C-alpha cells in the first residue's frame, strides 16, 4: 500500500509539472561528468623571436612533455626592428618571452622597462661573463659572431692569397671583390661597423670606410642579398668572392663527404655577437617563460641550439655540431663595444658611414 501511494504521488507531480517529474523519478543511469567536460588545452608559452631562431617541432615537443606547456615561436622580424616592436607593445606584450636581442639594442629595451626583472632565470654556464650592465633580466644564450667569409676556389683559381684581416680589404689586389651589408638595415652590416670602430677607433673608422668603398666594395641591403645572391660561393653564384657573414657560415658549405668546406673565414676582424633572451613584463605566462628559458640553458639544449641555428653555445662545454669545430671554429674576435656606448652613439655612427654610400 505504501508503494501504491508513492506511485500515485509521483504521478500527480508529473501532472503538475514535467520538471518536477523528471527531478523526482530516480534514474539508474549515472551521469559521467568527467566524460562530458571539455578537455583542457595545455598552457602556451609565446616566445617572440628575431625571425632567425628556430627549433624543430620534435624538440619543442620534448619541452611540452616535460612541463605540460606548448611553445609558440612568434616571428618578431629581424633583430634591428625587434626592439621597436617590444617597446611599442610593452603595455600589452605580444608574447611571454623574447629571444634574439643583441648588444646593439639590449639597452634600449631594458631602459624601456620591457623585461620582468623580478623573474630570476638561471642562464647557461658561462652566461655571467656576457651580462650587460643596465640590462637586468637579459640572459645570454648563444653567440653568432660576424666575420668575413671568402670563396676558397676563387682564390685558388686566381692564384691570389686570401685576405687576412680588415686592412687587407682596402688593398688594390682585392678591388671589386667584397660585398657587405648596410649597417642601418642589417645586423651583420652593423657588426662590421662595430668591428671597424673597435679596431680603428672613433677617430679612424670613417676613413677606413671611405677606403673600403673606394676599393669597389658593394653594399647590399641585407645578408640574404649579399650571401645568397652576390657571393660567388652562394646560391646565386654572384661576382664577389668576399662577403660579410658569420663565423659559422663555413659550416653550411661543408661537402657531402664532410671532409672539406668551400668557404673559410677571414681570420682578423670578426666581431662577437652575443644573443640575449628575457621574460617580458606583463607576460600572461611568466612561469612558462621562465621554464622555457631555463630549458634552453641546459647543456643538452645548448648543443641543440648550436646545431639547429648554427651558432656557438654560451656553455662552452656543450658539443658543437660535427664539422663545425674543424671548419668553423670559434673565432678570435675583436673587443666588443660597450652596450651603453652603442645605445648612445649608434645612430651617429651609422649616419657617418651611410652618408658615404
UniProtKB/TrEMBL annotation:
GO terms for cellular component: outer membrane-bounded periplasmic space. GO terms for molecular function: thiamine binding; thiamine pyrophosphate binding. This is Thiamine transport system substrate-binding protein. It comes from the Bacteria. Keywords: Signal. InterPro entries: ThiB-like (IPR005948). SUPFAM superfamilies: Periplasmic binding protein-like II. PROSITE patterns: PROKAR_LIPOPROTEIN (PS51257). NCBIfam families: sfuA. Residues 1-20 form the signal peptide. GO terms for biological process: thiamine transport.
Amino acid at each position: 500500500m505504501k508503494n501504491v501511494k508513492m506511485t500515485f504521488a509521483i504521478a500527480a507531480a508529473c501532472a503538475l509539472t514535467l520538471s518536477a517529474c523528471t527531478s523526482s523519478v530516480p534514474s539508474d543511469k549515472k551521469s559521467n561528468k568527467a566524460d562530458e567536460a571539455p578537455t583542457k588545452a595545455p598552457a602556451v608559452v609565446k616566445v617572440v623571436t628575431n625571425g632567425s631562431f628556430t627549433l624543430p617541432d620534435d624538440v619543442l615537443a620534448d619541452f611540452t612533455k616535460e612541463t605540460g606547456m606548448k611553445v609558440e615561436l612568434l616571428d618578431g622580424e629581424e633583430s634591428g626592428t625587434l626592439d621597436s616592436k617590444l617597446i611599442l607593445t610593452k603595455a600589452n606584450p605580444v608574447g611571454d618571452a623574447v629571444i634574439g636581442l643583441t648588444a646593439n639594442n639590449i639597452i634600449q629595451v631594458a631602459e624601456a622597462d620591457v623585461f620582468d626583472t623580478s623573474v630570476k632565470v638561471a642562464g647557461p654556464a658561462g652566461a655571467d661573463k656576457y651580462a650587460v650592465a643596465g640590462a637586468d633580466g637579459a640572459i645570454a644564450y648563444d653567440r653568432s659572431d660576424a666575420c668575413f667569409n671568402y670563396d676558397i676556389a676563387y682564390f685558388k683559381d686566381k692564384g691570389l692569397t686570401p685576405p687576412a684581416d680588415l686592412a687587407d680589404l682596402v688593398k688594390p689586389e682585392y678591388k671589386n671583390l667584397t660585398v657587405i651589408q648596410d649597417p642601418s638595415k642589417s645586423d651583420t652590416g652593423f657588426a662590421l661597423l662595430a668591428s671597424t670602430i673597435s679596431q680603428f677607433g672613433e677617430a679612424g673608422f670613417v676613413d677606413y670606410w671611405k677606403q673600403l668603398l673606394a676599393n669597389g666594395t658593394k653594399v647590399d641591403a641585407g645578408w640574404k642579398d649579399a650571401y645568397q645572391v652576390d657571393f660567388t660561393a652562394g646560391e646565386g653564384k654572384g661576382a664577389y668572392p668576399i662577403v660579410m657573414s658569420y663565423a659559422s657560415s663555413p659550416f653550411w658549405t661543408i661537402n657531402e663527404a664532410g671532409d672539406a668546406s668551400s668557404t673559410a673565414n677571414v681570420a682578423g676582424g670578426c666581431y662577437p655577437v652575443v644573443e640575449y633572451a628575457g621574460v617580458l613584463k606583463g607576460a600572461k605566462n611568466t612561469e612558462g617563460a621562465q621554464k622555457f628559458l631555463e630549458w634552453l640553458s641546459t647543456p643538452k639544449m645548448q648543443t641543440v641550439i648550436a646545431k639547429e641555428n648554427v651558432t656557438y653555445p654560451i656553455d662552452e662545454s656543450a658539443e658543437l655540431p660535427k664539422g663545425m669545430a674543424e671548419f668553423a671554429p670559434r673565432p678570435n674576435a675583436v673587443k666588443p663595444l660597450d652596450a651603453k656606448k652603442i645605445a648612445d652613439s649608434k645612430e651617429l655612427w651609422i649616419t657617418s658611414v651611410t652618408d658615404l654610400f
